[in-house]
User: What shape does this take?
Amino acid sequence: MRLKHLFVIYFTLSFGLCQGENNEFNTSLFNTIPDSVCNKKSVELINAIKPIKCVYWQCIYVGTVLHVGEKGKVVVYNGDSLKYKRIANEYSATNYFLSGCHPGYCGYYIVAVIDSNNVKVYDNDNVSEFIGNIDNLEEMVLSTNIHGYRFSNDTIVRGSYLDCDSTYLLYVTELGYSPCYCSTKATLSKSGKFKLINKQIISKNKNDSIFDLP
Assistant: This one.
């Protein structure tokens, strides 16, 4: 009986702390991202996707003239490449996800062969559809990166999460260059919808930047 009461109390507290922007973002409840995931390159995160049902998919990295030999390179593929790669190679995109390489332009897109008569291209506008339900840490980190934020392993208020059933509560920081050392509160639904709550400046005396290339 006592265990039952403890469970009810725990469930009530957990539910109350998982109400999005109105919760207190209590850091004592948050989990840091393991270094083994936090330090993975974009290609490794993409390779961990458990995608929609398809017979073959490939992720293309498109570089700029500054990345000789990297333009249009297949960096990840899954499925029967001998049978379907030729079909996938007929498709391309220009609105890449995880885009960067300022002042040039580079990034990724995915081509999925659903079947012999159905091919779909996933870019920055719809890549969350390809990822589908976020069900592992790599997909959570990747989805956060796609929305312009990242997990830093230097402090819990810049790199941690709380799993709240259908939504993750996040402490993250900006991906790319930031003029300040900041902490950002956000939510990420397991269907891939990202919502910024607020950003707090920790220090104005140092900037913060990271640029991840394949």
